[in-house]
Amino acid sequence: MGSVILVGAGPGDPGLLTQKGRQAIENAQVVVYDRLVSPAILSLIPKDAEKINVGKESSNHLVPQEEINRILLRKAQEDKRVVRLKGGDPFLFGRGGEELELLEAAGIPFQVVPGVTSALSVPAYAGIPVTHRDFCSSVHIITGHARAGAELSIDFDALKRTGGTLVFLMGVTSLPKICKGLLDAGMAPDMPAAVVERGTLPRQRKLVSTLERLPLEAEKAGVKSPAIIVVGKVCSLSNRFDWFDCLSLKGKTVVVTRPEDRSGTLTQRLRELGAEAVDYPCIRTVAREENPELEEAIGNLSRYRCLVFTSPAGPEIFFRRLRAAGRDARALSGLTLAAIGPKTAKALEKHGVTADLVPETYDSDHLAKALEAVEGPVLLCRASRGSTALPEMLERKGIPFADVPIYDTVYTAPDPQKVDALLGEKLLVTFTSASTVRGFVESLPGRDLKNVIGCCIGKQTEAEAKKYGLTTVVSQEATMESLMETIKEVRL
Ligand code: SAH
Question: What CA–CA distances, in Å, run from 371 to 309, 310, 386?
Fold first, then answer.
């Protein structure tokens, strides 16, 4: 029998999705989701799962609640594992209860995975602790939304009497009425009050003011939904505890062009530092299935003195082929193993062997230098169309070598719409190889790329970006750490 899991996706920062929520999404066959769920969380949905968007903003045609309830029921009756993904916490102004009623009546099994609610987390990202012993002893969460055609039904006198922090959701349109209601109930005009727009997201904006002035200031600033209104003395702490706006990459948008399977950690680290990181994989490495050259080399490994890998993908593919040939790491005994950098060395270690040689600077020029000392035939296992620095040096030195392509770099042609909307402002784009530069530029034909600042991992990558006329910065070392430092230093 099918089932439904109601999952809270959190307020926006994808890091605030719970582990249980993530598991549910990864195991789903159908995911029914809302407008406020972030793209990074939607990207966890398995490729073969059905995705149903019931909160399309563009068409302004929200799927009515009864229809959503029926979709959940129908999909569960089709024996599917359904996840209903909702912003924040599903039971806090999320209609989660309504969605369970039909399921319960039909005897469909369901579970609820609570989420981090915006009501508490958005203030936290704005430096506002919703309670503090010096200021209040309660917090109240209120909807500022009035049912169609009806007036706001909020008991302002009661709220004022609590003396607690007041958090209003869905209150942007009613902000003037809310503030007036509280003032009329006798709350002090200089009571600290704040509005936080797009909380926990890279473009979070906050405005801290007083109850009296907040509506006008919010109007001037053009505050839009989704936003949260906080009223209470705790708002006076907001500037002192302002941690999120102070993150080193806050306000920067960074496009990550690495292959999807390798982009995860870079994207995550950028987000942790407050950047808006956009995954835009421009290349993919594809191992060569039929590879007689590699088979030949593996059959004759004893002819070589040195085996060279120039990316972490190299050892992966090499060892897979080695095992397919009925051999293992012992076949490498006596060979000097060279890796272009620490990640590639680590990939070797996974297979129980250690790199003898890693150049001080992680690029092919320096690898070529380091290999000058090697005597005897060298086997290069790397991408087809790799850098020419290595073979040129080996030729010059008269060192015999075989250059065996073990994978191809293919361009993935990502959806240019993901970047189009960003090109109007200064935009950082990470390039971790010359092929990512080519893939990026070719995915955006006819666009003006003057706002793009290419953050390049090494000299050769930078040279490629310059060929296309891009503005560039280059990391000191060819490592992700160094690239991160470079991104931090860019002045926009
Ligand atoms: N179930 C959700 C709330 C749904 S009501 C939760 O627990 O968070 C939608 C309202 O939530 C919005 O109108 C806004 O007031 C608030 N909200 C949700 N995400 C927000 C965000 N990232 N920043 C500011 N407010 C947000």
Answer: 12, 13, 17
